[in-house]
Automatic annotation (TrEMBL):
InterPro entries (UniProt xref): ABC_Transporter_SBP, ABC_transptr_periplasmic_BD
Protein name, per record: ABC transporter substrate-binding protein
Pfam family, one: Peripla_BP_2
PANTHER family for the chain: MOLYBDATE-BINDING PROTEIN MOLA, VITAMIN B12-BINDING PROTEIN
Recorded superkingdom: Bacteria
Matches recorded under Gene3D superfamilies: 1.20.58.2180, Nitrogenase molybdenum iron protein domain (3.40.50.1980)
Residue span, Fe/B12 periplasmic-binding domain: 56-218
Origin species: Formicincola oecophyllae
Amino acid sequence: MMVMMGAAGNIGATVASPKDQPWLFKLVPTLERAKRLHTGALDVEALVHAGIKVAILPKADRAQQAQLAMAGIKASVLGFDDFDGLQKCVWRTATLVGTTLARQRAQAYQQALQASLKRPMPPAGAGQRKPRLLHIASLRPLRVDGCGTILAQWTQAAGATTAAQGVCGNRQSVTPEQVLAWAPDIIILAANAGPEEWLAQDPVLSRLAAVRHGHVWRNPAGLFLWDRYGPELLLQLSWARMVVEAETHPIPGEAREAAHEKVAQAMMVETRAFYSRFYGIALSKGEAWRIVHAQPPQP
C-alpha cells in the first residue's frame, strides 16, 4: 500500500525480496535501499539500528506491537479479509503517510473499487448454475484457498462459487482425491503455484474435466500478487470476471487459446491504466504483457 501512496522512498525495511517480487524491485528501484527482513520472527534490534520510527505489521504479527513500542517504534496493524477491510486498509495507510497524494490516491482507489464491485454480471442462462472455481496456491505440495479469505470474496464477485467446499483459510493442504471430488469447472493457478504441466502429469488431477478440456488459467502478478492481499485486487476483480464470463459464455467455434488471449489483451490495457493512475508508473506494452501472463521482467 505504501507504494500506491507514493511513499516507497520512505520504506526503510521490508520483508519483500527481488526473488519473490521481481516486478516490485524493477519498477520501484528505491526499495533496493531498504533493509531486507526475514519473514517470521521480527528483529526489533535490526529495525532500531536501521532508524525505523514507524512499522506496519500484518495481523499475524499483532503481538509484536508492544515490543516495538518499548523500542520507540510506533506500530500499526493493517490487514483485511474482505473488500470492506481493503477499503479501510487503504484509507488508514493514506492517513499514516499523510500526504495530499496519498489521500488523493486512496480516494480514487476506493471509488474505483466500489464501482467495480457494483458492476453487474452478465445474466446466467436458463437453469445455469454458477461455475465452481478452484484457486490453487501450490501444486507441490498441493494447497488451495477456501472460505473466509479475500480469494473467496473475489471469486463470488466474479460470478462463481468456491469449489473447495469444507476448506477455510489460505493455502490449505488437500489431497488430489479431494480436488477430484469437488470437480471444479474452472481452475486458477496462482502465479507461483508451479508449472501447469504438473496437473496433467498427476495421475489423479489429470482426470479432472477442467484439466482435460483446458479450463485452467494462470493468475497474473505484477508489483504484487493480484489474487491476494494487495492493491492489485482491483485488477484481479476485472480479470476474474473476464475469466468467468469467457468460461460461462464461450463464443461458438472460438479456440481456448483465443479466449485466453482476448482476456489478456483487455487486461493489458487495464493494467497500464492502473499502473499509471495508482503508481505513477508508465508500463510498456511488453511489460504489461509479461505481467498479465505471470512472467517476470526480462533480464
